[in-house]
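User: Can you help me understand a structure? I only have the sequence.
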Amino acid sequence: MIEPIAAFLLDLAFGDPPNKLHPVAWLGKAIDVAAHKAPDSSAARFLYGLALVLLGATGSAALARLILQLPSSTRKPTEVLLLKTTIGARGLVDAADSVASALERGDVENARHLVGWHLVSRDTSSLSPEELAGATVESVAENLTDGLLSPLLYYAVGGLPAAWAYRFVNTCDSMLGYRDEEHEWLGKAAARVDDALNWIPARVAAASIVAAAAILGFDTKNAWKTMLSQHSRTASPNAGWTMSAAAGALHVTLSKRGHYSLEGGDRRKSHRTIREAIRLIETAFLLDLALVTLVSAIVSHIGKRRAG
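Assistant: Let's start by predicting it. Here is the structure, written out as tokens:
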């Protein structure tokens, strides 16, 4: 029951290890190697991508199960360490805060670099300071689901194998789930499986943002209203929930050129908005962590009753 809390505290204390030591980075390298061996035709690429995501998730879960066979004295610390690498609370906050600091200094070029390097896949070279602030808020809100809540929630339900299966699928989607010519068919299966796995966590995360808004004194009513009325404006069936809730809570409009506009208000976005969003998401995640701990306790209790 305490593993999610321990993993979160480890992440806050130490952040992410270097890529050469990061298991998720190893998954990414494996996915990249496999993607370069994909066939050429659309149908074959779809089937190849489907096999990749299913076999990769199964393999990740199987490797995680091996950890559970270790002696108790080493199993729990190793389990917590591996669970910690599936989340990225400190990395997300540090990245967002670095953008806020760059914008506060008026260093727009550095802010563009930081947003493009750490937070979004879109071209940031022509984004205005306000657009950069908005993109950062969007990323912070969206990552509450797949970077924080989802892996811990799947751990609570299915242990380390479930958390690592989820992390493989999500990594596969983040690398291949694009609508361009190269990835359209290869990443389609990963994108659809990722959508399905994040369906419940995204809505839980959005509700936690509304609750966090109430705790912090942001506009709870507007967060709720914007979330319910505008969550479907994004192409993703999940990302719009947390982003629209954050937009409403902060009274800002979050938009991506040519794609969507989540109209939570007309406040100007700046480095202050980013730091408000960080406070909002940190509070929301603490609420989510409490929920994860409760779910873990319930699942553990059910398992013990069945065993008894």
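Now, to help you interpret it: The chain has one domain: 3-307. The first helix runs from residue 3 to 14. Let me know which part you'd like to focus on.
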